[in-house]
Amino acid sequence: MIAMIGAILGFLSSVAPLAIQYFSLKENNAQSIRLETLRQQGEREKIAGQVDIANVQADTEQGKHIYDFGSGSSGYKFVDALAVLIRPYITLVFFNFYLLMKAALFIYGVNSGFNLGQLVKLLWDETDSALFGAIIGFWFGNRMIVRGQQMQATIAVMKK
Q: What is the dihedral of CA 10, 13, 16, 21, to 10 degrees?
């Protein structure tokens, strides 16, 4: 009996340090994994910040470049005035043409006896909605779209 107790105690005395070493190693590995995960997350955030900075710099350069072509003077007042006037003129001509077409459709609809629901469908369809959305988007939405794309790029980098 004493021999058996001695054998068991001898076995436990040799296994106990191994068990303690195993649990210590397991905890050290778990800690290393947590630290590596945090390091990788920090790298992703760093890269996301760099992507944001690059996007802002690219937007700034693009904004400068878009208007650089018309910023210089040609030396001829008539040419400079024409260059400044051409885009607003084309916009006004097409907008007035659009209004004229809508007025003609309204007159046609009224003379044809269309009711209000039919007139609305005749005067404002999906094409008009798309055109209106494009114009509003051009004048007011470009920054929101660009910022949305930047946020998506940042989120994509963060998820990796």
A: -120
